[in-house]
């Protein structure tokens, strides 16, 4: 039988597929394919609570083992694996005792040690901090000194098991060490903000990060304060980054289980089972996603579907290990060669663009709110120094953020863009500002005014003026398009905006308080991919889309297949097929799409630069859309390029587009 312990809601985490929601290189949210297969950080954080008495399964003193394998000069050096495994079962306060945290920490280090000298790693270095040996000081010291020895070619795994706590006044997140008290977690607990800063420093040298969380609700232990919450998700305290992998033990509202017979938590037991070969693919290699998929299925089987783990990823899948039963026969993964040549990528800044504020009273111009932000977003996204995200993506990945500034700070966003506009007597006035988040100060501003039918020209000039004030290099083709827009028809631009927004012209309310006339506030998101383990793929044909049988497909692939089917239906002006891609296909949306289709001839549509953020059964997909057509009203060729974010939900038939909140 197994004992239960409650689990908190899943991480909002940052994107890129796209998603977990801050900048790449330590704050990035969605950029992934830009970095070669360089080193990786895998943070396996199991923060758990139990209502059962705890037993110290391992000695509390830290242990460290490593063995250097002689390198063969005839082949490139393979990575080393660095494992920092931390678990606290025994606490000073009796009601905090856990059963298997320390045992889980030692077990993970032991199973990964078996990878030494195999096809993936030349050497494996391990340090275990358990119970009294896992203090705030020893944890931070191990991050700095032990993992500080890793090179950019290596992989680092950080395993964290114990109690998690969130305080409300002020809001802060803590990992409780043995001596920590829930009443005063700041005295001996590990502040997750401090851990996040350490990880960001490590990330500059080791460019990928994986975080696996198992948190619980406060019901397992007696609360010590009205302002403290047990089992709070610790992920929001970690700044997102490209190459971020987060494995989480349960979804929102679910309970995590402990297996008394196996003497491990159900999730840890499933991970160990996968790392001993059960999660290996046919080539004998074990990837992060493959391990997560195996763990999810096994945990659901062990708990009767009461506990469903999921994964959040930023970046491509990572080869984490090899089947230890077949080490001699497995071909080393190609990433070892790339790693030997890879160098750290320069840091990129993250920037987010908020929907513009309409200060006028004529609702017929409401469509410009999204259109203006899309045009700014589209132009900024072509700058190689920036990772750029829109308000829709920011709202998705920081659902609990009270306002935009708080969301930006949580996500590690570097700059915010915000603007306002109004139309009077057929004259459009539009202004925008770019501000840094920390410290909050003005960086650039611009204002344009002119005939409303010159919408695209005015927008291009607005963006050009902002870019002139920023330390960025503007590509020649972008500068040319800003000066000479390819989308000159105001009517066509409006029809495109309304069809994309759902046909009403109305948009979701802005996040946070209302803004002033020219308030600043854009936000920069890193790239994030948030993926549930048991995702369902879609066919790219119209009508119902069946689930795929057998092993779970690559989540990036299934979402791209769905998105491409949606694109084909748009290009074919097939309203019947388009309906199957929406959870709620309203009459107003159908009418808006019909108006757009009727206004275009020879419509060609392309999607590129796709970025995905997934939280449980929900996803946000950001992409650049190119529409080329002949305007039936003027007979002129048009080319619209807009950055779009769509919300998706996983249903029985596959992924469907959701209505914006």
Helix share of residues? 25-40%
- Please tell me the overall pLDDT: 75
At CATH level 2, the architecture of the largest domain is: 3-Layer(aba) Sandwich
| Distance linking N and C termini | 42 Å
Assembly type: single chain
- CATH topology assignment of the largest domain: Rossmann fold
Any idea what the radius of gyration is? 25 Å
> In total, how many domains does the architecture comprise?
3
Number of strands: 29
Uncertain runs are 1-39, 47-64, 66-71, 217-225, 335-345, 503-551
Task: Give a verbal description of the structure.
The chain has 661 residues and is an alpha/beta fold. The two termini are 42 Å apart. The longest helix is centred in the last third of the chain and has 17 residues, at 555-571. The strands form 6 sheets. Strands 4, 5, 6, 7, 8, 9, 10, 11, 12, 13, 17 and 25 form a 12-stranded mixed beta sheet that branches. Strands 19, 20, 21, 22, 23 and 24 form a 6-stranded mixed beta sheet that branches. Strands 26-27-28-29 form a 4-stranded antiparallel beta sheet, sandwiched between helices. Strand 23 and strand 24 (441-451) form a beta hairpin. The chain has 3 domains: 2-341, Rossmann fold (3-Layer(aba) Sandwich), CATH 3.40.50; 349-501, TolB, N-terminal domain (Rossmann fold); 529-657, Nuclear Transport Factor 2, Chain: A. Helix content is 26%, strand content 28%. It is elongated. The chain is built from 16 helices and 29 strands.
